[in-house]
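Re: the pair you flagged

First of the two:
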Amino acid sequence: MLKFDRQGLIPAVIQDDATGEVLMVAFMNEEAFERTRQTGQAHFFSRSRNAIWHKGERSGNVQEVRAIFVNCEENSLLIRVLQHGDAACHMGYRSCYYRRLLPDDSYEIVAERVFDPQTVYGNGGASEKKDVGARSPFIEPLETALRQLYNFYLYLKDHDLSEESNTSRLLQERSLTYLLARLADELEELAEVQSGEHVHTGRQPDTILEGSQVQYWLLLVATTLNLPYDDFSPHLALIKGYNAGAIRGDTGSEIEQQQNCLDLLASNEHSLIVQGMELGFALVGNACAQAGVSPLEPAEYDLEQMRRKGLIG
């Protein structure tokens, strides 16, 4: 009898069956555990997404289960797997434990990257994004709108206007962990608008509303991290997601993309954080395409709200 915790979860250590190398640690609920046993491939439960995800659904790096072991207290699992694709870590490494902690609390990368997550997860390179942007009629007004929003948030971070602005208070008082948690909530709601699980007034207005919320929290994360706008060029990432068309994967694939976005943003590597920002905006763009709304509308919605409050002219 497995003992799941109060949240209904049990930790699972994933180990390479051939080498004994620890590849990753994740959580399962009862449903994820049963899916793992029934399919023979690892399924986990995402706490930030509150949903089941199939490991490797998008990347192809699935884990074929060879054996499942239970500890003496029956409250954790050791799962030995055949790792397909040569990499278990979404950062592109063989194992999630690719960094050694040094005495000064810094990290030393001790493994070679197996694949480029930017390529695998579809963000593309800088030249590709520029080509995508050049073909879009939305690119100039979208860049103008997003730069205006971002510059305003940077101002609110540098000038404590907490008494007049909730956004300024968030930037002064809240941690990156809090901002990422709020972003996780909005990413989930944006996806649920497209699936019909989350309804306010209708798919198109709800996509605009939730898309604007995802962009808001993404930009607050970028503000907190002091990212230069041109490092992550959200207008180009958003247009790329939009130009992908109404391409909708199954729920597992969508959850994995959202989780990748959050994990990348929580990393300590600038290049990975940039990829996380780009993936987040691409998800907004793709949602707009699915709903048949302009990729400019979520940003215009936020700007209009700010005009009504007298925050901008």
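Second of the two:
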Amino acid sequence: MDAPGRIEALWIKRARRGPMDAAETLHLVAGEGVAGGADRSSTRQVTLIEREVFDRVSTELGVAVDPAVRRANVLVSGISLKERRNERIRLGSCVIELVGETRPCERMDEAVPGLRAALSDGWGGGAYGRVVEGGEIHVGDDVRLEPAVNAAAS
């Protein structure tokens, strides 16, 4: 089995367009999203970004880019989110079904000039998904891709 990735940071947004508050723990509610979070929908319940993308973007832009400016809930390392639509990922004890790519918006350039373009390729803006199995996640928890639920038999 491959080595697990890791949860590097967590954030919660308590009000629309409000600040992203750093957290050591988030409670994820199945079918709903981040407990106490402002953004809840049927599909975009939790958002994830990759540490490696922000390391690359910081080098490209020549400035340290704080991943919090992306306004996502979870920063992971060691796991690629690119092209993971309809796959499941385990964050600690929770399972997220990845629904799609989170496209970077104009707010990225308000934070760091050129950031929107730097995040535009290869799912650089991260992924969003639905909470399938809820519970608590913590900074430092393992991150693993789950086996396909409906893998076709050959």
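The radius of gyration is 15 Å.

-B.
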